[in-house]
Amino acid sequence: MSRPELTGHASLFYNAKEARKYDSSSRMVGIQREITERAIELLKLPPNRSSFILDVGCGSGLSGQVLEEHGHVWVGCDVSRDMLNMANERIERKREEAMGDADGSSDDSDNDMNDDDDDEDSNNNNNTHNREEPSPGDLLHHDMGTGLPFRPATFDACISISALQWLCYSNTKEQIPKKRLTRFFSSLYQVLRRGARAVLQFYPETSEHAILISECAAKVGFAGGIVVDYPNSTKAKKHYLVLSFERSYKAPQGLTGLEGALLKGNNGEGSRSGVRVADKDPRKAAAAGKKSRGPPKKKKGGGKTKEWILHKKETQRKKGKDTRKDTKYTGRKRPMRF
């Protein structure tokens, strides 16, 4: 199956049919919930306090629903109007349910307190206040590649689920990935309050895409790193770009305990400030790949080299088979028999 980013603009791919299919898929709903929960964990928001969070590429509002369950207020923007229609239906449905509950509580309170006019007035005032309470989510039709149209220092945090990689592709001559990424990160830097963090989950097609995203984030002043969960798994592998204003901030480790490729600064020396990425120069990475292309070969006499054994064990692990751990004795040459 080809990547949806290669089929054209996101607003054309996520049409009414695809949006309905996306929102009704139990598998997709489960994946989105899991990724959003992980993003909230990486944000490290203050406990027992509601935060104002920006959801970039909110889609049908699946991630916003998780934010609401955690007690946060959110604003979502997306380039697909059909996906926003699905999110708006969810918000309106929840608002109607809240209004129905408020009307039911109003009837009960009126029946129980007919004898006390003062209590009745106070209950009516409380019910009116409940009816006027705004929804915890709001929507905006907007292309994030053109910059975020919000006032400076508006949001306490930002999340993005499976949307950032779309900026690495161009559908017209005017769409230059590097310029669109720089414009997005520059506006994100402005709309976040100082001390806020952003967690952007994305699916890079190549390592060059991850490097491009990282360089653009570092160029505008962000610090942080890429957290890779389940790096040895093909399906469960997830990339999270964690950004912060703190110059000494270091990205946390992935769920397997292996920290993903850290981001490097613009000077390429891995300084503490700025976003860092390993193997920043694609030409060096390509040259290294040419030297060790393909699996290691066996010895001519039929023996097995240490590199061949390690490669074989790694292949077995990726297939999910039980494999012994690597030790200092792995591939060690045994002494000759008497």
What does this structure look like?
The structure is a single chain. The chain is α/β, with parallel strands linked by helices and about 350 residues long. Helix content is about 40%, strand content about 15%. It contains 10 helices and 7 strands. It has helices spanning about 10-15, 15-25, 25-45, 60-70, 80-110, 115-130, 175-190, 205-220, 280-290, 305-320, and strands at about 50-55, 75-80, 135-140, 155-160, 190-200, 225-230, 240-245. It has a 7-stranded mixed beta sheet with strand order 3-2-1-4-5-7-6, sandwiched between helices. Strand 4, helix 7 and strand 5 form a beta-alpha-beta unit. Helix 3 crosses helix 4 (about 60-70). It is elongated. The termini are far apart.
Please describe the topology of this protein.
Elements: H1 10-13, H2 16-24, H3 26-43, E1 52-56, H4 62-69, E2 73-78, H5 81-112, H6 117-131, E3 137-141, E4 155-161, H7 177-191, E5 192-202, H8 207-219, E6 223-229, E7 238-244, H9 282-291, H10 306-318
Parallel strand pairs: 1-2, 1-4, 2-3, 4-5
Antiparallel strand pairs: 5-7, 6-7
Helix pairs in contact: 3-4, 5-6, 7-8
